[in-house]
Design a protein that fits this description.
Blueprint lengths: L5 H12 L9 H16 L4 H12 L14 H6 L4 H13 L6 H5 L5 H6 L4 H22 L5 H15 L17 H14 L4 H16 L8 H15 L4 H13 L9 H4 L7 H8 L1 H9 L5 H8 L21 H16 L10 H13 L5 H9 L1 H34 L1
Helix pairs in contact: 1-11, 2-3, 2-8, 2-10, 5-21, 8-9, 12-13, 12-18, 12-21, 13-17, 13-18
The structure holds fe (ii) ion (FE2) (4 copies).
The site of one fe (ii) ion (FE2) has 4 residues, from loops.
């Protein structure tokens, strides 16, 4: 159950997306806003359809997260490397709650002819064209240092004339607002606040975000889903109130959100990270805190950002000691380790159950993890370990299917 208000969910997602690349901060929102305005003026789309398309457009460049070098997205767009549109489409088809709109992401860099010949209903084709025009215009604007709005508008008009030879079926978008991020943010938020989102849709939106960064590498692909499963199962073993279990569940989903800003080379490092790189790696917790602050309850925030703290105070980022760590925080910290040990990583193999328990036992003995949680884990080790592995297998299957289809698509388009 995700009981986050829409506006807080929106804020968490936007803050996270904006962490990927400094140059493209606001790109998703600017494009989503302009597409929203075009759809509103067109009149054929219901409120619900517009809101779902807005979410889709906010995620339209999610396929870029897959790239090794997330710092050069703008360059990638310029290099005509549009494979991210295919990957983003396949990814959203799998995870996104509004997967019926994933098609618009697939074509957002396609040629005029490809869009024209695409087998999609006319209404969606119209959305694809709008997205194509607005996206390209914003990138043009970004690439010119976001200085010359008139030039960007001329670019927008020329592209519109090309894709809609009979004239853009609506007046125009209020292009000058592209410089005013506060207004864009406010207006998008107004729409999202009105949208009726089920708890399942909210969870799927968060999972889309979290999986997009986990799926950057097969070493990290399974982490969040396995970690959430381990934490949920441990929480079930204790007689906790549903509210607390729910906080554990959301805190676990969000715990590594800050990794969105950590370069994949660091996440995939085959050896022990040296001083500077280790500091960058550790910074994911503070980034998670920045993203979540003010958007989730303090209980959820603390669960998410204390997963690397240890009872003896030797953890990070704050070195908080045992008395300050609550049971839910201790559960999630153990859930994180169970998951990490049960996964294959760039620097290690997946460990069998007895080895997982051995390592955790040593950590408990050294005063790092909670003996109560450890005891509960020992009592249920078999069922928890196998459920966690099963969860990992399900996620691995989704990962493999997306990549297999991706290679199929990109190979056939190269022939
Ligand atoms: Fe793109
Ligand atoms: Fe884009
Ligand atoms: Fe972490
Ligand atoms: Fe983690």
């Amino acid at each position: 159950m995700i009981e986050l208000p829409n506006e807080d969910l929106y804020e968490v997602i936007i803050r996270s997306l904006n962490r990927v690349n400094d140059l493209l901060v606001g790109h998703g929102e600017r494009v989503a806003y302009s597409v929203m305005r075009l759809l509103e003026q067109d009149g054929r789309f219901s409120e619900e359809e517009i809101s779902k398309i807005v979410w889709t457009v906010l995620f339209h460049d999610i396929g870029n997260f897959r790239k090794t070098d997330t710092w050069n997205l703008v360059q990638l767009e310029n290099d005509q490397d549009y494979s991210h549109a295919i990957y983003g489409f396949l990814f959203l088809k799998t995870f996104f709650p509004f997967s019926q709109y994933a098609t618009i992401v697939r074509y957002h860099h396609s040629t005029d002819a490809e869009i024209e010949n695409a087998c999609i209903e006319q209404k969606l084709k119209w959305v694809v064209k709008c997205l194509r025009i607005v996206d390209a215009s914003d990138l043009y604007f970004v690439n010119n240092g976001r200085k010359d709005i008139d030039k960007a508008y001329t670019y927008f008009q020329n592209l519109s004339r090309r894709l809609f030879p009979a004239g853009l079926p609506i007046g125009s978008t209020d292009f000058s607002v592209m410089c005013d991020m506060d207004t864009i943010h406010y207006r998008l938020l107004e729409r999202i606040k009105r949208q009726v989102l089920s708890s399942g849709e909210k969870e799927a939106l968060l999972r889309t975000l979290v999986c997009s960064m986990d799926f950057r590498s097969h070493y990290t692909a399974l982490h969040c889903s396995m970690m959430v499963r381990a934490s949920d199962m441990l929480a079930d073993c204790f007689e906790l109130e549903p509210k607390v279990k729910n906080e554990i569940h959301i805190g676990a989903i969000l715990h590594d959100l800050g990794k969105i800003a950590i370069p994949i080379e660091i996440l995939e490092s085959p050896g022990k990270l040296d001083g500077r790189l280790w500091e960058i790696m550790k910074s994911h917790v503070m980034i998670t805190e920045d993203i979540l602050k003010g958007c989730v309850s303090d209980e959820i925030l603390q669960i998410a950002i204390r997963h690397h703290e240890t009872l003896d105070g030797s953890g990070y980022p704050r070195g908080i000691s045992g008395e300050e760590l609550t049971l839910p925080q201790r559960i999630v910290a153990v859930g994180d380790i169970v998951s990490a040990l049960s996964e294959e990583r760039s620097y290690k193999q997946a460990f069998p159950l007895h080895e997982v328990m051995n390592i955790l036992g040593q950590m408990c003995h050294a005063g790092k993890i909670c003996p109560r949680v450890m005891k509960m884990l020992e009592d249920h080790s078999d069922s928890i370990y196998h459920a966690v592995l099963e969860e990992g297998l399900r996620t691995a299957e989704a990962f493999e299917q997306i990549y297999a289809k991706y290679y199929e698509f990109t190979q056939s388009s190269m022939q």
